[in-house]
Design goal:
Layout (H helix, E strand, L loop, with lengths): L3 H11 L1 E4 L5 H9 L7 E6 L6 E2 L1 E5 L7 H22 L10 H10 L4 E2 L2 E5 L4 E5 L10 E6 L7 E3 L2 E6 L6 E5 L6 E5 L2 E6 L2 E11 L2 E4 L1 E6 L3 E2 L1
Antiparallel strand pairs: 1-12, 2-4, 3-7, 4-6, 5-17, 6-16, 7-14, 8-12, 8-16, 9-15, 10-11, 10-14, 13-14
Helix pairs in contact: 1-3
Length: 227
Amino acid sequence: MLEWPRTLATLEKQGWAVIRGLVSPAECRALVSLYDDDRSFRSRIVMARHGIGRGEFKYFSNPLPDPVGRLRTELYPALVPLADVWNAALKCDVRYPARHGEFIQSCHQAGQMRPTSFLQRLGSDDYHCLVQDVCGEQWFPLQVMILLAEPLSDFTGGEFVLSEQRSRLPPRVDVIPMRRGDAVVFATQDRPERDTNRTLRVTMRHGVSAVRTGCRHALGIVFHDSR
């Protein structure tokens, strides 16, 4: 049973929260084994070609394999209340439907038809620059990254990194400790932060530090579809 009240409280406070053991070791291995089967994917992204790092990832095609589709559908409703609170605090009028299927319909009506959840593979010396996954007019302000490999056993280095940028201040960086099967939920782009009598807009970016040895696999759960 996920402790959603604690997870949501942590998310609201710091813009990210870790869910321990969200995916079982067997499911992690099964997902990693999909990487070399191109039938599961719509495209392969070589990160160096796009200036976003080294290594690669693949976007899943529809229908999403289990547990990718199941996780996307089950996690979304728990995050909607906080997404709505954040948008209200940031003076954004967008509110989200309770069910993920309804949100995907709004993406499709905006011409965003392609799933954006992905499987990432980083080998030795590969890394992921700090980025944001906003893929069109319709997007969801929270997303999830799940580590599918075991640190120190399958790879070394490769820490998940989040940066926070406040107006006129230097960025702050968090390095998130994770084990295989752990998930980190984090802000896709901006989040509000209360400061005395005003609300600040904190811009978030995420990435992965350089893998020193081995191979690191991770699953990205992105709730919106793209063009």
